[in-house]
Amino acid sequence: MIQETDIQEINITKSKYRTFTTFKFYTEFLPDLKRFYSSSKISEPPAFSLRESSYIDPSTLPLIISLGNSLKQYHHKEIPLRLSNIPGTLSNKVINFLDKSDFFNLVGDNTNPSYAIGRRIFNYEKGYVGWNISNLEVRDEHKIRGYSLKDLRMVNLRRLTEDLQRDKLIEHYIYAVDDDFNEVYEYNGFTDDERHYFNECLSELISNSLIHSDSDCFVSFHSNRFKTAISISDTGIGFYKSLYSKKHGEHNYRFLELSNSFKKITALKLTEDVKNNFFSIFEALYYSCLKNRRGLFDLICSIVLKGHGIFRIHNFSSQLIISSKLESELNQIYSFREEIFEYYLRLKRNNDEKDLIEKNLSALSTKTKEAFFSLASKVINNYTNNVQYSPVRFFNIEFKGVHIEAEIPRTYLTEEEVEI
Amino acid sequence: MLISPIINNNILYINLHAEQTFFGSFHADQLNVSENIITGIYTDELLPSVLAEILKFLQEKKGKFKILVLDFQKLVTAHPRSFESINIIRNECKSLVLKNIDSRLINKLNLNDCNEYFGNNPKALLHDEFLLDEDSTGLRGITQKTKTVFDIEFKNILKEINFETPEKKIHHSSSVYLNKFIDCKSLVVNHKQFFLYTCYWLAIEMSEDKRPQRNWFVEKGSKKTLLCQNLNSSLLSSVLSSFLLIDVITLDHIGPINKVYNEVEKKINHGEEYIVVADVVCLGTEVRIAKNIIEFSGGRYLGNVALIRILTMEAAEKYRDVESVYEITKDNNPIKFKVTTALD
Lengths: 420, 344
Known about the structure:
- The complex is a heterodimer.
- Chain A is an alpha/beta fold.
- In chain A, about 50% of the residues lie in helices and about 15% in strands.
- Chain A has 14 helices and nine strands.
- In chain A, the strands form two sheets. Chain A has a five-stranded antiparallel β-sheet with strand order 5-6-7-9-8, with helices on both faces.
- In chain A, β2, α2 and β3 form a beta-alpha-beta unit.
- Chain A is globular.
- Chain B is of the alpha/beta class.
- The N and C termini of chain B lie far apart (about 45 Å).
- A five-stranded mixed β-sheet of chain B has the order 1-2-4-6-7. In chain B, strands 12-11-13-14-15 form a five-stranded parallel β-sheet, with helices on both faces. In chain B, strands 3-5 form a two-stranded parallel sheet.
- Chain B contains ten helices and 16 strands.
């Protein structure tokens, strides 16, 4: 019989972290967890603790939950979560923040369909949750939700072609997301245009994640006066394996063609796995750029180029940060992308010019590849010269799956609307 | 299933907002059982599955019409994936007319070759009519408003669903006699899609602010309740409650006029606002009884809605609480409806 005190605790909100951000999750929290797993024989999962208090960035919540989810699958039991709620202190504020964001409903065993349905990931004492005595008003401006293909009623979804699957899912999630994040929209006084824009972004990201990762995904969406942030996390197979399954030569895409050309020129001292994972981020963007459907790359362009935001993609142990620093390269690729898309449109309208269009498309794909190549060389160059401000980060600990964060400043969107 | 297609003079009219409302209200949650999503008529984004459904419909109907009219009224945006279907729809018909379309929507739907129509004015919003055809100039101005087409179709169907009542026999329940019986059940059974489209128009009318002609309207998120008083009206109000996102309660077996009530319903909540729903309102006796029950129990009676309202009798003043899809008046009486009393 294992005593409760025997279970080792790992503090999520250590006071040394101060504000617990995604960067701290990758650089400090994951090493802590690794130390636990390499120190002793593991039969019991560690207990996550929220007793020492610090602020939590809402973007980290999907990461914590998907980490808990994969640990739960590994240990075949719920992960203990230790709480404390002392009136008048920060811990009370943190608990209320988590409660308002639907965190406890999502990770617990809630069955009330008005809130997020519980996934039974963490095991916590419910007595700590739900009272707010510190006169701190917690706003409804952040929400977290979990999505899974298992919730869906369509048994034969997986038998459809990828594009059809995506169409079905995107349509469903436009409705679902609008419903789920209604409070965030209402509280922040979003205009209808902003609402449509974020519904589009969220549904695209969720369906991408569900189709390619083979796992559940967790989404947080929050907004304040300055920015709106989306964070989405899954613990799936990652870009590399997902691209591996693509048909050779489809849309002029050949697996690893781009990565192999990177490997020839760069002198990055990294293991083969890390390199593969890092380059597969570019591969994924390149593939999405060549496709005849709107997808991830178009979303990035609309967020970074039109919305002036930041887009972070984390794949296993590497992270790529796309921001306006890469604007000139991105603009060039975007113009190629629009051309490719225009050709596909023309192909759809009449089939007579098929040969000519396909010839043009393959020429364009080479151009796009070169543009991606110059983007990647700039990124890697920045990494070797100036690590602190580089658009790429490599972490010591691998965290399974793809984790995406997007931040969009609020003022820009409204300014654009005024122009319209 | 589409609810709005109407063929008039070889022109097929489809109201996209009606289709999106129907889909968003009854098919939005089809992928996930535990979610209950209803968008109602407040939706303003066109999604691809509606267009896919239209495409399916067109392939069945091929050759039965010459011009297709898609009405974009009340839609402000479309999902970027919708454009593909629009392009295929273009190939399915000889000429396509897009009504009430926004220049932003044109960009979203990638109908860029139509930009010539808008000239150098990107701020041009809500053009009335917009054609996609090689020799489109000859077509301009021959299409009608979707609401007008709907009214014409309603009149035609009204002629179908009424029949003569047998000869006048004196009875005790009421001293009023009608020469025609309007069979709303056959509207529901034989013209199912059209019935839903009728509900859509009723919901749209109810949500519009028409003060001072009418002293109430249903805005988004309001706490008004629909009250139905018989079987037809309960079907009508259940559809209306999905479209307008409001609650519904039933008071069954109201009337006839000489019925004696020994108990007042306990369903009415104190201070809540109620709208009485009926299929056909002739003299308004049942509505008045429902109103009395509501007000006696402490609720607030706002007004009443009906599919068809008979206004052949002269009223002392215009009602400010009523709304209907079709009004039969002295001048507009296609079925020669007549109200008589026992004295006539």
